[in-house]
UniProtKB/TrEMBL annotation:
InterPro entries: TnsA-like. It comes from the Bacteria. This is TnsA-like heteromeric transposase endonuclease subunit.
Length: 237
């Protein structure tokens, strides 16, 4: 553990400590350790994603990073999320100083931390692979999970992006309508015909999509969402 140091930012400023001293730090509540450059002719696509989990913006530097921020936001067990959450410092076998800022830090409701790096798997060169391996070692020592994630299944991602359009609380139903929808879909039922039993689908469907986003209802997202998609209680997902 002594081989790694961690740098992070919060409202009080910048900090740098040995890994052993930061295990209780709430990185998800801090500030990004670096910015996201934007310039004319840029080949990647930086931007901000509004997270329903945090109620604020999460930065990304590519569509791939945006997709994985969205997937973390879509995970009901995730309670905190920050992009570029920390610097990890160490020395390689030749004594050269190395640093790496992972893409995301997520906190789960049971207290677990998860560090995520996003990179198309066919674009991981030897330099990146070495950094990812060292980051994995640091995370294992700290008790955090670690993932290197690549492209997401295209159909699943299209479905999640659609549901993300209904992630904001303004699409949520009042508890009365939500209870009726949960009862209506107490057994697997086709999306639009069943929703229509409660009224005009144009009015009812946003509430259904919001419940799907929250994980209170479930559907098979490995197939394109359609009028006939079976929606069921989340417990049967």
């Amino acid at each position: 553990m002594d081989q790694f140091e961690v740098g992070w930012r919060d409202a009080e400023g910048e900090h740098r400590r040995p890994l052993a001293d930061v295990l209780s730090v709430e990185f998800e509540a801090g500030l990004p350790v670096r910015g996201f450059p934007s310039y004319r002719g840029q080949r990647n696509f930086p931007g901000l994603y509004w997270s329903a989990t945090t109620g604020g913006h999460v930065g990304f530097e590519s569509w791939l990073e945006r997709d994985h921020a969205m997937l973390l936001d879509f995970t009901p067990e995730v309670t905190g999320l920050l992009s570029q959450p920390l610097w990890l410092f160490w020395k390689d076998e030749r004594g050269k100083r190395i640093s790496h800022a992972p893409d995301y830090f997520a906190r789960f409701e049971d207290g677990r931390g998860l560090v995520v790096d996003c990179r198309p798997l066919d674009r991981i060169d030897s330099r990146s692979a070495a950094k990812f391996a060292a980051t994995r070692t640091a995370c294992e020592v700290a008790g955090w999970g670690y993932r290197v994630v690549g492209e997401v299944d295209a159909v699943r991602m299209v479905n999640v992006r659609w549901l993300a359009g209904y992630r904001h609380p303004r699409h949520g139903a009042d508890e009365g309508l939500a209870a009726r929808l949960l009862a209506l879909f107490s057994a697997p039922s086709p999306l639009v015909p069943q929703a229509a039993l409660l009224g005009d689908p144009i009015t009812v469907l946003p509430a259904v999509f919001h419940l799907l986003w929250l994980g209170r209802l479930a559907a098979d997202l490995s197939r394109p969402l359609s009028d006939a998609t079976l929606v069921s209680p989340a417990a049967t997902r």
